[in-house]
Write a structure and sequence with these properties.
- The protein is of the alpha+beta class.
- It has a domain of 281 residues.
- Helix content is 43%, strand content 17%.
- The chain has 12 helices and 15 strands.
- The strands form 6 sheets. It has a 4-stranded antiparallel beta sheet with strand order 9-8-7-10. It has a 3-stranded mixed beta sheet with strand order 13-15-14, with no helix packed on it.
- Helix 11 packs antiparallel against helix 12.
- The relative contact order is 0.11.
Length: 418
């Protein structure tokens, strides 16, 4: 009896597990439509309706943002060189769809249903690797055909020895050199057909060649499917959400964003950032994003700094030379005028007081100065007469001479003996 009960319990468990496994497999392989993009990306940007491309997404990012250049890096996986983004919405925008840049609104993303490690056009030379986002409507066959070029400003180049670094943003070449570099590069036609997803994508530079240029071995990072939106590189494993995206048929309800803005009401990138400076991206990745901007801006800023001193220094130096020339004569003149007004009063006061306060002693002292003062007084009168053409200094010697004449007349007065 107990044996039958045990067999019944085991059979029941087997039936339950057998029924659940197909459902779980179906859940993992179940496809979703574009609604997942509209819902998941809405908190991080603005959806608008474009007459040519349909619903287009404008991210809330700092000015200077560049797809496949800002806040991320390349990692070699089993699917080739895969872009790992620091943005919480990077799982969608850098592995599905296409990017294009509007001169006023900035970069915009157009959804698509094909997954790839990175929808970019690759180029290489003996010194550099470069990549640029593939524009709307650009297929793999067209992007890697003869004569196809993305705009030269859209390319990001690094030296071959720096490619594959996690801090690759610190080694970007300034795009002012892109024209020269592009003319010396060729397309990297290294495509792969994913039969499971019925997709063809580019794997990027050859791993063996990158290992030679960088001087280190590169091991492919395995990809683990994630059940929720996002991507994260942890323990040398890339966890990423990459569901099968199906296109809606005419009989099905067409997916749409919950809120669609009018393009006329959408503000420029700089205006949006001023009104909402706190972006909804990982805080740790904001610093990496600023570094990406600084790397591309520093050469231009450095060039501007080198130009400005060359223009400003001569004017500043000339201004410095002119100001002393204008100020010194006035100061010198003021110094010459002030002594002319202050000096006469002091000698006159000194000569008057001894005469009034010390009559007996002054008679004795005046005997000796009478012989020495005329030569000294004459010298003082000559010095003061040169810088002081004003009438006041000419009156001063007469007063001094009159005061000194009095002691000379006292010689004939009889001396009183005690």
């Amino acid at each position: 009896m107990k044996t039958k009960i045990k067999l019944l319990i085991v059979f029941s468990i087997f039936c339950i597990v057998n029924n659940l496994l197909p459902q779980k497999t179906m859940a993992q392989n179940a496809s979703v439509n574009f609604q997942v993009f509209y819902d998941e990306l809405s908190p991080y940007g603005t959806w608008i309706e474009n007459p040519e491309y349909g619903y287009v997404w404008i991210p809330d990012v700092d000015p200077g943002f560049a797809p496949y250049a800002t806040n991320g890096y390349w990692v070699y996986t089993e699917n080739g060189w895969t872009w790992v983004s620091g943005y919480s919405w990077g799982w969608a925008t850098f592995h599905y769809g296409r990017w294009y840049s509007d001169p006023y609104y900035g970069p915009m993303w157009i959804p698509d249903n094909e997954w790839g490690p990175g929808w970019v056009s690759w180029r290489s030379s003996s010194d550099y690797y470069g990549w640029a986002p593939m524009g709307p409507g650009i297929s793999i066959s067209l992007a890697y055909g003869n004569g196809y070029y993305e705009h030269f400003n859209n390319y990001t180049f690094v030296r071959g020895s720096h490619f594959g670094r996690r801090d690759i943003n610190n080694y970007y070449i300034n795009n002012s050199n892109n024209t020269t570099i592009i003319n010396n590069t060729t397309v990297i036609n290294n495509t792969r057909v994913d039969a499971h997803r019925n997709t063809t994508y580019s794997m990027g530079p050859n791993r063996t060649e990158v290992e030679k240029r960088g001087g280190k071995k590169i091991t492919a990072v395995p990809i683990k499917e994630s059940t929720k939106p996002g991507e994260r590189l942890s323990n040398n494993q890339l966890q990423i959400y990459r569901p099968q995206i199906k296109k809606t048929t005419a009989a099905e309800q067409k997916p749409a964003p919950a809120r669609v803005a009018n393009l006329k009401d959408v503000k420029s990138t700089e205006q949006r950032i001023k009104e909402n400076p706190t972006q909804k991206s990982n805080p740790a990745d904001k610093q990496l994003q600023r570094k990406n901007q600084d790397v591309k801006q520093q050469p231009a800023q450095q060039q501007q700094r080198n130009i400005q001193p060359a223009k400003q220094q001569p004017d500043q130096q000339q201004q410095r030379n002119i100001q002393p020339a204008k100020q010194q004569p006035a100061q010198q003149q003021q110094r010459n005028v002030q002594p002319a007004k202050q000096q006469p009063a002091q000698p006159q006061q000194r000569n008057v007081q001894p005469v009034k306060q010390q009559p007996a002693q002054q008679q004795q002292r005046n005997v000796q100065p009478a012989k020495q003062q005329p030569s000294q007084q004459h010298q003082r009168n000559v010095q003061q007469a040169q810088p002081q053409p004003q009438p006041q200094p000419h009156q001063q010697p007469q007063q001094r001479n009159s005061q000194q004449a009095q002691p000379q007349e006292n010689k004939n007065e009889p001396r009183h003996s005690n």
